[in-house]
Every structure is written in C-alpha cells, then in structure tokens.
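Notes to self after the Tuesday call (sharing in case useful).
The group wants a holo model before anyone commits to mutagenesis around the pocket. I volunteered. Ligand is magnesium ion. Logging inputs and output together so the record is complete.
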Amino acid sequence: MINETSIKATLANVIYPGFNRTIIDFDFVKEININKEILSIIIEIPSAEVTIKTQLEEEIINRVSLLTELKIEVIINQPKVQKETSSHGKNMLPNIRNFVMVSSGKGGVGKSTTTVNIAIALAQQGKRVGLLDADVYGPNIPRMMGIEGVQPVFLGKNIKPIMAHGIQVMSIGSLVERGASLIWKGAMVTQAIEQMLEDILWDKVDILLFDMPPGTGDAQLALAQSLPVAAGICVTTPQKVALDDTVRSMDMFQNLNIPIAGVVENMSGFICPESGKEYAIFGKGTTAPIVKNFNTQLLGEIPIEPAIREGGDNGQLISVVAPNCETAKRYQDIANKLWDFIVKVNQEGGVNNQSIQPTIF
Ligand SMILES: Nc1ncnc2c1ncn2[C@@H]1O[C@H](COP(=O)(O)OP(=O)(O)OP(=O)(O)O)[C@@H](O)[C@H]1O
Ligand SMILES: [Mg+2]
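Result:
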C-alpha cells in the first residue's frame, strides 16, 4: 500500500536538474494527494524553464509508477515568493530570495559587528534572515551571536543552521577545526565555500547576509560565482588608510557585478558619556567622496561605543539588549535602506552573475 512517506522516499531520488541535490532536499514537494484513481504530486520549483519541468515530470512519473497502478498527475508551479527576486544566472540556493555580501578592504573595521546588528534589525522588522559567516580565516559570528560551542545538527551529509535571536546562522567556524583554515590556499577556499553552500539546509530565507573575510579574494569571487548577489555593503572606518582599501573593495563589487547598496562608516566619532563632547578619534564624515565617486549612498554612521564591543564579545548584541538606543536605531535605519535597495534592484530586473562564471578551457 503506498502512502505519502513511501512516495517521498522515492522522490528523494529525483535530482533537481543542474544541481546535485534532490527535490526533497530543496523542499520543492509541496503536496501529495492520493484518491481512488489519481495520485497527484504538487511541486514548486524556482525555474520557469519548460525543459526542466518536462524532465522532472518524466522522472517523477517513471519512478512513482513503479510503486502504484494509479494514474499519476504531476503539477509543477513556481512559488509566488519567487517574484520578489528577479535575479538570474548561477544560483546554488534557489530557495533563498536575496543575498547580501558585507565586505571591507581592511581587517578589523567592524564588518562582523555591522553584519550581525543589521541581521538582527532585519529580523526585528519581520524578515526571515539567514547569516552565513564566510570568514574562512577568522570566523567570529558564533561568539557574537552567543552560540560559540553550540554544535549544529547533521542530517546525513547536510547540516541545519543554528537558530539565534530568530536568525538562521551558520559559520564556517562550526564546520572546520579551529585554526585549520588559516593555511588554506585559493582553491581550498573556493571549495570550502561551495561545499558550505551545498550542505546547509536553509529554511526559507528572505535575505541571507554573508560576513566576509577582509580584502578582495577567493572567498568573494567564489560566492559571487555561485549566487546572484543582490547587494554589496562596504564597511569602513573613517581614517585615510582604511578609505584607500575601501576603494579596492568597491572596485571589487563593480568587477563582480554586485550592485553596491552603500557604505557604513563605522567607529565614526566617539561621544564621551561623561561630558557629552564628541571626539573624532578616527575622523568622521570622510566617506562622502567615495560614496559620491561610486554613485552610491552612505547607509549610516555608527559611533565608537563600548556597548557595541562588549555586545560582540559576550554575545549580548546592542540591537538585542538595547533596541531603542540611538545606535540600535541607526542599525535599523541601515537595514531599512538595504531592504529598499534590494527591492529596487529586483524591480529593475535583478542581478545576473553569468558574466563572471569561470572559463572552462
Ligand atoms: N562601533 C564600534 N564601537 C566599538 N567597538 C566596535 C565597533 N565596531 C566594532 N567594534 C569592535 O572592534 C573589533 C573588530 O570588529 P569586527 O570583528 O566586527 O571587525 P571585522 O571587520 O569583522 O574584523 P575582521 O576583518 O577580522 O573580520 C571587535 O572587538 C568589535 O567588537
Ligand atoms: Mg569579521
């Protein structure tokens, strides 16, 4: 006697064309109805291509007809949510709507801090948020999100993100031994990123933020080739030496065809809690010319604030513990601007990473 479980077990052998994961792994099977004469299987796939639909339909019918004499009807739809992203090209994670890369030219300017606080602000606004720590050389997200030492759950070769503050989080730090990645060379970084993208089981995500290693290297290229990244954010501190590197980071976004959502000026001034006097320790407002040159926007200025550093060190993020303070409001404002930018990118046709695919000789 067939039932939903036995049919799903059979469908777990149907590979989604062009990928090495099945339609069950991707959660594409939405409904299975069995009545006296007809067995109907309803699936949702991101692609509208007729050849993919035909190929899937044939394979499903071939496999399921081995289980039953019933007439088999396969209904293939496109999910409604897909309309909110219009990106195309190679996409290893078709069930995620939008990808955002947070980069900086220089190390230690506050990328990870900015990424986690924007992620929290987006989740507070009701978005389904994913956060992927792609910093192969120094993954900090587990500590900042308060999940250091928490072991993720494995399902076969796949791995479930860890939930923290309502956000699905995965870090390369949870997957590789501490220190092991420090000696990785280019191809290994690329492979690790691709492997990570293949193996993580994200559960419907509106916006997936990538916290990147500093600089412009293999990790950035591997991601941009694997996914259509809808927005790039550049984090910088105000001093000149940081700004020089920021220009390189912005150039990289342009070379990778990633639309630039804007710049976050971090550690932008310090307001003395005792006197209320403002000190421009690293300078302030210095990003304006870069913003103008790249025809983008200043997403926000975040001051130096001890609570930001403490929050990162002990997993008590300022946006969680003090959501109404001025700094948390600035992160919310950055999150709003980012979301508006992504909506605009999608309305204007989305992004396409076809032109940056590796050349095969
Ligand atoms: N606005 C801020 N006020 C106070 N401390 C901050 C601020 N932004 C970041 N920090 C602190 O500065 C340090 C570096 O920040 P963070 O780790 O986010 O930088 P990063 O750019 O991700 O570094 P890396 O390049 O190593 O990945 C951390 O200790 C963090 O808590
Ligand atoms: Mg970092």
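Two things stood out.
The mean pLDDT is 88.
The longest strand covers residues 260-271.
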